[in-house]
Amino acid sequence: LTTLAPVHLTKHEGLGNDFLIAVAPVRPLDAADARAWCNRRRGIGADGLIQLVPADEASLSAPRWTMTLWNADGSRAEISGNGIRCAAQALACHQQLDGPGTFDLDTDAGPRHLRVSPTNDPATVDVVVDMGPAKPGPADSDAWAGLGIGVDRQLGIDMGNPHLVALVADPDAHDIATVGAAVEAGYADGCNVHLIKVIDRANLALRVWERGAGVTEACGTGACAAAFAASTWGLVDGPVLVHMPGGVATVDASGDTVVLTGPARCIASVTVHG
Fold it and tell me: In this structure, are residues 34 and 25 in contact, taking their beta carbons and an 8 Å threshold?
């Protein structure tokens, strides 16, 4: 009988998008670990699993780390805006920071710089992430009419992962689970699907379908894509508050790169055997 070494994990959430995080685990993790541990009935439960290893293997206090992210279904994800904020908190806890700190993470979508700041809640930090430039993404979908949805505009955006943002009259009027799955099915490599509404020139409402996870309460890269789309369409000015079921993120898409600001909260610490 082969027994795998126990793995220490912390669980974090960013606006209701939850992740299991292993900092310098005793063994390399894989897709099977993600499927088992993220299962909400037979595992711990999460939207994704993140592995963090130091870029300099000799130093666990290194400022630069490599981040690997698996979705709950075991598929590899290039990046997650909420997940990377949670990763920053996990690193801050690992290094026992009692004040602000900065980290550089190498992701499948490229390097990202993060700044972590404590809040009045010991379990919660605020994290600012330079998410890099928004690039052209997936082609427009022709599935909307068949779903009975009137889309005013749509835009495909690459935030290191693929997003399709659709402007509608009321995101809450549609079942995002049905809509997201149907629209994503039209893309061979999958796609994150978002319905947005412009509340005013500083506020957006967003509903999320995430590739590999399904309906989630929030999506950090999706918030970035939504703000960038609304900015491109001339509907918002400067920093935008993006309102999602899990809470509010701040996105500034007015510069050369998109900057995401939001909370991360540590929920639990657990050791998994096997």
Answer: no
CA distance 247 to 223: 11
**How much is the pTM?**
0.90
Two tokens, residue 239: 């920093």
* Cα separation, 205 vs 125, whole angstroms: 23
Dump pLDDT digits (tens) for 170-203: 999 999 999 999 999 999 999 999 999 999 999 9
pLDDT of residue 29: 96
54-61 long-range contacts, Cβ below 8 Å, gap at least 24? 54/24, 55/106, 60/24, 60/94, 60/95, 61/95
CA dihedral 15, 20, 23, 27 (to 10 degrees): -160
* Contacts with 164 (C-beta within 8 Å, 6 or more apart), sequence order: 137, 138, 140, 141, 154, 155, 156, 157, 183, 191, 192, 193, 194
